[in-house]
Design goal:
Elements: H1 4-12, E1 38-47, H2 58-76, E2 79-89, H3 94-110, E3 114-122, E4 126-135, E5 151-155, H4 160-169, H5 180-191, H6 197-205, E6 212-215, H7 219-230, E7 233-237, H8 252-261, E8 267-272, H9 277-286, E9 291-298, E10 302-306, E11 312-313
Parallel strand pairs: 2-3, 7-10
Antiparallel strand pairs: 1-4, 2-4, 5-8, 5-9, 6-8, 7-9, 10-11
Bound molecules: adenosine-5'-diphosphate (ADP) and magnesium ion.
Adenosine-5'-diphosphate binds next to α1, β2 and β3.
Length: about 325
C-alpha cells in the first residue's frame, strides 16, 4: 500500500531546482518575490461529476487542473511562478497518480511553474490548485479598467468545448450527431485547454490592454463581469465571434449560441484602445495566438448585439452558473 507520504514523495516531490526558496516537505513553502514585483494569486477547484466526468482520463485531468489556473494568471497578465495542489483521492491508485502527475508536470514545466506544496487526503475526487504569478505594479489587467470606446477582443476560438459537451450528451440542439473525428477534435478543447499565458503577459508588459478576463463560463457572462466592474456596456458583432473549427461547420444559431455563451473556452477576452490595434496584432503574431476584434465598449450599460452588417440582433443568451 502507498502511504500518504510515499505518494507525495513519489508523484509530486521532484528534485528540480526551481524559483522557490523552500519547496515541498516543510509546513510551508517559502517564495522570495522578484524585487519590486507584485504577486498574483488565484485558486480553482475541480470536482468530479461537476467539472469533469467520473472516470475522466488522469493525464488530461492533470493538464486541465493546472490549465484553468494558469488561465487566470494569463487574464491578469501575470507570469506563472509556482502552485500548490490540494487533492482528495478516493484511493491511492498508482496508474491514476502516474497519469495525473504526467499531465500536470508537462504543462507546469512548459510554463516554468513549480509545484511547491499542497495537501493530500482521502475523499471524493477533488483537485484544488492555487497558482502564484508575478506582475509589475500597475500592469495587471483588471476587470474594472474597460473604457468607453475600447475595442473588445478575444483570443483563439470559442465554443468547441461546449459543442463537445453537446456531442457527448447527444443534445437535441445538434442537427446531427457529431462524427468520431469531430467529437475528438472538439473534445480536445474541452479536455486539454490552452491557457493564453504568453499573450496575457505581452498585453500587460507592453501596456496594450485595459481590462481582461478569461472565458470559463461563457463570453456573455464573463465579459459581463468586465462591464459591471467598469460601469460600461458593449456592442458585439455576433458574426465576428471566432468559432472553433468543428463548431464553424454547424448551423448559424448553434454557432452563435455556443461561441457567445458556451463556456470552458479558457480564451482571454480583453478591451484595448483603438490606438493599440497594430501593436496587439504584432504581439499576437509573436506568441502565435490568434486574436479577433469582436466589438466595442460603450458608455451605456448593457450588452447589445449586431450581425456582420451592423443590424441589431436580439440574442437571448446566458452563461453557465453553478447555482442556477
Ligand atoms: P502538514 O501536515 O504540515 O499540512 P502535510 O503532512 O500535509 O503537511 O504535507 C507534507 C508536505 O507535503 C508539505 O510540504 C505539503 O505542502 C506537501 N504536500 C502535501 N500534499 C501535496 C500534494 N498533493 N502536492 C504537493 N505537495 C504536497
Ligand atoms: Mg504542518
Amino acid at each position: 500500500m502507498l502511504s500518504e507520504f510515499d505518494l507525495i514523495k513519489h508523484y509530486f516531490d521532484r528534485p528540480v531546482p526551481g524559483r522557490a526558496t523552500l519547496g515541498i516537505g516543510d509546513d510551508c513553502a517559502l517564495l522570495t518575490p522578484a524585487p519590486g514585483m507584485q504577486t498574483a494569486i488565484s485558486s480553482d477547484m475541480l470536482v468530479e461529476g461537476r467539472h469533469f466526468f467520473a472516470g475522466e482520463e488522469a493525464q488530461r485531468l492533470g493538464h486541465k487542473s493546472l490549465a484553468v489556473n494558469l488561465s487566470d494568471l494569463a487574464a491578469m497578465g501575470a507570469r506563472p511562478v509556482a502552485f500548490t495542489l490540494a487533492l482528495a483521492l478516493p484511493a491511492a491508485d498508482r496508474a491514476w497518480l502516474e497519469g495525473f502527475s504526467r499531465g500536470l508536470f508537462a504543462l507546469a514545466d512548459a510554463h516554468g511553474c513549480e509545484l511547491i506544496g499542497g495537501d493530500t487526503t482521502k475523499g471524493p475526487l477533488t483537485i484544488c490548485i492555487t497558482v502564484f504569478g508575478e506582475v509589475a505594479p500597475g500592469r495587471a489587467l483588471r476587470r474594472s479598467a474597460a473604457v468607453a470606446g475600447d475595442d473588445v477582443w478575444v483570443s483563439g476560438t470559442l465554443g468547441d468545448a461546449r459543442l463537445a459537451l453537446a456531442g457527448y450528451r447527444q443534445e437535441p440542439a445538434l442537427a446531427a450527431p457529431l462524427n468520431a473525428a469531430d467529437l475528438a477534435a472538439a473534445g480536445s478543447r474541452m479536455h486539454t485547454p490552452t491557457p493564453r499565458v504568453a499573450l496575457g503577459v505581452l498585453l500587460a508588459e507592453r501596456g496594450l490592454a485595459h481590462a481582461a478576463i478569461d472565458i470559463s463560463d461563457g463570453l456573455v457572462g464573463d465579459l459581463g463581469h468586465i462591464l459591471a466592474r467598469s460601469g460600461v456596456g458593449a456592442t458585439l458583432d455576433a458574426d465576428a465571434l471566432p468559432a472553433g473549427p468543428v463548431l464553424a461547420a454547424q448551423p448559424l444559431a448553434l454557432r452563435r449560441a455556443f461561441t457567445a455563451a458556451g463556456g470552458d473556452d479558457y480564451e482571454i477576452c480583453f478591451t484595448a484602445p483603438a490606438a493599440s490595434r497594430a501593436a496587439i496584432a504584432a504581439a499576437a503574431t509573436e506568441c502565435s495566438t490568434p486574436v479577433t476584434r469582436i466589438g466595442r465598449i460603450d458608455g451605456a450599460p448593457g450588452l447589445r448585439w449586431t450581425d456582420a452588417a451592423g443590424a441589431p440582433l436580439a440574442l437571448e443568451l446566458a452563461s453557465f452558473d453553478h447555482f442556477k
